[in-house]
Every structure is written in structure tokens, then in C-alpha cells.
Design goal:
11 helices; about 400 residues; 17 strands; binds FE2/S2 (inorganic) cluster; four-stranded antiparallel beta sheet; binds fe (ii) ion; alpha+beta; single chain
Length: about 400
């Protein structure tokens, strides 16, 4: 039951069809190289991934690099002012072109043999090549990039899913927190030695919050059983409107999205009494976002696609992106956003701002690794989900759907 040989297509299809609904995945979905290869092709490179915020690239030539599994993208503010993205793979013999994570440049010079590309990805110099060598034919490959209310998204597919629905339906909730005018106050990468799905699954459920996250559990009512939540929601709902927030619920995640469309969702959940935001003392962390006039005592969850999640408090937004490094390792990139005119030291303190989600993510990292260790054991077998793991269960259904889909 626990071999990690590459299954043939029929075996993978049978595994997908035999997966019991409402139960955790068969071991081979986590351990099999063949299934991971299929995930790369049908999930990882076919969906949009949060890559930061336009405010990180304000000047011409500003760039950042995003690495996901085998892929690496250079995202750059080009000469015409637009944001462009390219595969970070030299057209000569394939070296990574840009080895820095971010910076400002007028050109990208491949470190191997010195081919040079401009910020539009055009090859502009290639030493000692024949006179008739056509540089125009060797531009860096384009990577799909979109700016959605200030957020940068990239997709390693020439025909990515449509973001039109997300752009339209998330416009109002994103405008409430003025996503267009946020800035990154802090960013941290957490490397986790576990299959990437375990990290996303863990983010999707709060069944573990009571046991693993004492800091989170006394602040967020999302850790309560859904049956107990409506009572605590009432207080927040009463305050919301007066603070400048509308009650909006969008449940159009990937499981419900039409083929060719990227799924998305939005909802707001109360914090426990006495918490204005996700801080150690419950008190404010930064200036109120957008046009908010006061704290309603809530936090909003945004979902966009299978890897990217945002949590909007009244005074800051935390972005989480879970992506694989390889089959057995993944990363969680966390962005802490505040309003663009907030000044560090005066309006916010990075240690205070990052405290809750740093301590929570460190704890998550540990439980995900322990989960991974157990999942690889010969004694592992799928177990039944609780009512508090509904989102995780839906996520798994979507994974199976996506794996089933033909190329
Ligand atoms: S691989 Fe880039 S110049 Fe040779
Ligand atoms: Fe957690």
C-alpha cells in the first residue's frame, strides 16, 4: 500500500476515482512522483499565484523574482510603465538569468555566458554569435501577469484561467480596505519540509486552532464550531456598517468556478470581544485601512485560486501564498500590508505587526511537518474529516477535479 513507484495513468485515474469523499487523501497523493508531476502540469502551472503588490515595483526597472516549484519568473516594471513578467530562463542554454530576489536594473545579464536582455525581455546582446544571428527570435518567454486591485498575480500558463469574475466581484470588498493603496510593511518566507498540499489543507481548517494556536484561538472566533459562531457574529455585524464596511459574502471558490475561470471567495468573521485587530494586546497595529472610521472587531478572508489567501483586519492585511518547492518541500510566503501612507516607527512597528501570524505560522510549520512524517508511514490511512474541516474537504475535491481534467 505504501510503494512510491510512479503509477501509470490508469492507476492514477483509479486512485482519483476511488478516493472517498469527506476523507483525507490516499497516501500516494502525497508521496508519488507521478502524481506530483501531474499536479505540476494541471494545477501548479495552470492557476494564478499571488506575487506581491504593485507598490513593490514603483520605478521603471524595479523587479522581483518569484519561484514556484521548477519555475522562476522575473516580474518587472518595464520602460513603458507596465508590469511584465518573463520566465527566468536564458534562451541560450537555459541558465537562470536573474539570481537576485529583487532590485532595480536596466538590463538582465545572464551570469553564464553574458547574454543580455532588456526589461521588455528582448535579447539585446549575445557575444560571439554569427553575423546572421537573429536576436529577435530569442526573447525571454512571457509569463502571464495581472494586477488585481493593486495585487500582483502570475500564472505559468499561456492560457490562464479568467480573473474577470474575481476582478468584478472582489472589487467592492477590496475597495473597502483600499487594496490599491497598500504597501508591504514586512515579508517572510517559511520553508516547510512537507508536501505542499498538507500546508494548504492546514490553512483551510481551524479544527487544529484550539490545540495548536493558543495565540490565534483567543482572538479569532473562526476557531469556534460553526454552530456556535452566529452568536458572536451579531456584535460585529451591528458595528460593521457604522465603521464603513458592508456585509458581503462571496462563495465562488474553485470547486464552484466554471472551467476556465479562477475561483474566489470573501467573508468577514468576528474577533473575540476586546480585539480590534490581530495584535498581542488586542489594540490597533496601524492606521485604519481605506475609508474605515473605526474598528468593527472583525477580520475578512479573501481567497483567490488554490494557493493565495488574504486576511484583512481593519488596519492591516496579511497575505499567504503556499507553493511547492518540490514534491517533499513547500513554502509559505507571508506579506503584511498596511496603508501606503503609513510610516514605520510612527504608525506601525514591524515586530508588533507580524507577531500573531509569525508565531502562528511557526506553529503551523511544526504541525504540518509532523503530519507529513505520519502520512509517509506504512500505518497511515485516510481518516474522516470533521465539520470544521469542510473547506479542506472541498479543496481536496477540487484537487481531484483538476487532476482529472485532460490537458
Ligand atoms: S546560458 Fe545564458 S548566456 Fe549561456
Ligand atoms: Fe494553523
Amino acid at each position: 500500500m505504501n510503494e512510491t513507484t510512479i503509477p501509470d495513468t490508469d492507476t492514477i485515474s483509479a486512485l482519483i476515482e476511488n478516493q472517498q469523499r469527506g476523507w483525507s487523501l490516499d497516501q500516494r497523493f502525497y508521496t508519488d512522483p507521478g502524481i506530483y508531476a501531474l499536479e505540476l502540469e494541471r494545477i501548479i502551472t495552470r492557476n494564478w499565484i499571488l506575487a506581491g503588490h504593485v507598490s513593490q515595483l514603483p520605478e521603471t526597472g524595479d523587479f522581483k523574482v518569484l519561484k514556484v516549484a521548477n519555475e522562476s519568473a522575473i516580474i518587472v516594471r518595464s520602460q513603458d510603465g507596465s508590469i511584465k513578467a518573463f520566465a527566468n530562463v536564458c534562451r541560450h542554454r537555459g541558465s537562470l538569468v536573474c539570481l537576485e530576489g529583487e532590485g532595480n536594473t536596466r538590463k538582465f545579464e545572464c551570469p553564464y555566458h553574458g547574454w543580455i536582455y532588456d526589461t521588455d525581455g528582448h535579447l539585446i546582446a549575445a557575444r560571439s554569435m554569427p553575423d546572421d544571428f537573429d536576436k529577435k527570435a530569442y526573447a525571454l518567454h512571457k509569463v502571464s501577469v495581472e494586477v488585481l486591485h493593486g495585487l500582483l498575480f502570475i500564472c505559468f500558463s499561456e492560457s490562464p484561467p479568467s480573473l474577470a469574475g474575481a476582478r468584478k466581484d472582489l472589487a467592492e470588498p477590496m475597495a473597502m480596505f483600499d487594496f490599491e493603496h497598500l504597501k508591504v510593511a514586512a515579508q517572510k518566507n517559511y520553508q516547510i519540509d512537507a508536501n505542499w498540499k498538507l500546508a494548504v489543507e492546514n490553512y483551510q481548517e481551524c479544527y487544529h486552532c484550539a490545540t495548536a494556536h493558543p495565540e490565534y484561538a483567543v482572538r479569532h472566533t473562526l476557531m469556534l464550531d460553526p454552530k456556535k459562531r452566529p452568536r458572536v457574529q451579531v456584535r460585529m455585524l451591528e458595528k460593521m456598517q457604522a465603521c464603513g464596511l458592508k456585509e458581503i459574502n462571496i462563495d465562488h471558490i474553485d470547486t464552484q468556478a466554471r472551467p476556465g475561470e479562477q475561483g474566489y471567495g470573501y467573508s468577514r468573521t468576528a474577533l473575540f470581544e476586546g480585539c480590534q485587530t490581530g495584535s498581542e494586546d488586542g489594540q490597533s497595529l496601524a492606521p485604519l485601512l481605506g475609508k474605515l472610521t473605526d474598528y468593527d472587531g472583525g477580520a475578512s478572508d479573501f481567497t483567490l485560486g488554490p494557493f493565495s489567501f488574504l486576511l484583512a483586519y481593519s488596519d492591516h492585511v496579511v497575505g499567504y501564498v503556499f507553493t511547492p518547492i518540490d514534491k517533499d518541500r513547500c513554502q509559505c510566503e507571508i506579506y503584511w500590508f498596511v496603508r501606503s501612507d503609513a510610516v514605520e516607527g510612527r504608525d506601525y512597528n514591524v515586530d508588533r505587526l507580524t507577531w500573531l501570524w509569525d508565531v502562528t505560522t511557526q506553529a503551523d510549520k511544526e504541525i504540518i511537518i509532523n503530519n507529513w512524517k505520519g502520512v509517509q508511514s506504512k500505518y497511515y490511512q485516510p481518516g474522516p474529516f470533521s465539520a470544521m474541516e469542510r473547506a479542506e474537504s472541498l479543496y481536496i475535491e477540487w484537487i481531484l477535479q483538476a487532476l482529472r481534467r485532460e490537458a
